[in-house]
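FORM 7B - TANDEM STRUCTURE REPORT

SECTION 1: FIRST PROTEIN
SEQUENCE AND TOKENS:
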Amino acid sequence: MPAFFLPRAEDPDQAERLFEALAEFAACEPAPRGDRVASITFEADGVVWTATVGEELRGTRTTRQMRRGELLEHTVELTSATRVLAVYPGRPCTVVTDAAPITGAASEWANPFTAEPTGVVLFDQ
């Protein structure tokens, strides 16, 4: 588990202020230490995505097909240029990215967006 950080924060105090500001932007509560999410895994449109703070969204799509009595699997790795700025816990979790309206960057993802996690990794306290 990594120590708590946020991209673009230069020190721990700035990270705390940014974490609270991004929670306000996302209309959710900032999580207390010990409950802060470093990464979630979730499924969307048949793709298993991972949203890790500080990284681009990454996904894996696996298709299965029977061919001549044999099961064939084909896995495709997907990435999005959208970088995760913060993840707030809950059911569903709320993910804030560096896409519009925070920056002018276009994204196929809404900002913020919610996702029902299948896996959660917390930051170290």
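SECTION 2: SECOND PROTEIN
SEQUENCE AND TOKENS:
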Amino acid sequence: MKGLLGRKVGMTQVFTEDGILIPVTVVEVQPNVVLQKKTMENDGYVAIQLGMEDVKERRATKAAVGHAKKVNTAPKRYIREFRSEDMMSYELGAEIKADIFAAGEMVDVIGTSKGHGFTGAIKRHNQTIGPKTHGAGPVHRHMGSAATTGLGTNKIDPGFTMPGHYGVDRTTNKNLEVVKVDAENNYMLIKGNVPGPKRGLVMIQSAKCSKGDVEPKVLVDYSKKNEEE
């Protein structure tokens, strides 16, 4: 399994040479630095720790500065681990760029969903709107009965759907196709949508339940057309 850290930039669309429109999400992938390698002997599991985006030393903790100096790099804003034995071949301090993936590969993208504040059960859990007829009372958007199923416990069971804080959850969009990789300009195009707001942190990793990679799409290159004109 391979993995990278990136930032969601936004959505756009690209065209293939056959004239097919593909909606894509642009993900900025700055070089990731290998900060640490976890081993079974020392840590009880195998993982590689990646960091992205430098932070000034005066804005980082002493622990973060010391951790980064072990591999001769600056402290990082984002640090995440990927449990991958395939990436253990990278040396400490090595940079990993977007070209670790290729067009046509299937990936899972992990991010934090957008926050929607305090919302009702209809929007938060897709519950049904109540009757709107005369005499129904103010129950159009209420969550309904919170009865304790007659057990006499006088408590609400865990998992009961109620109004509350909606969003800001760890979310994974699975089996997304990599449409284009540009390591020179540090970005990737991924088909479809990925979790989170613009400029939000995302983790891109090889799809765990993939049915196989697909044939890379041949996109229209507008730069060549502009040069010809």
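SECTION 3: OBSERVATIONS ON SECOND PROTEIN
The helical segments are 40-43, 62-69, 121-125, 222-228.
The mean pLDDT is 90.

SECTION 4: SIGNATURE
Preparer initials: ____
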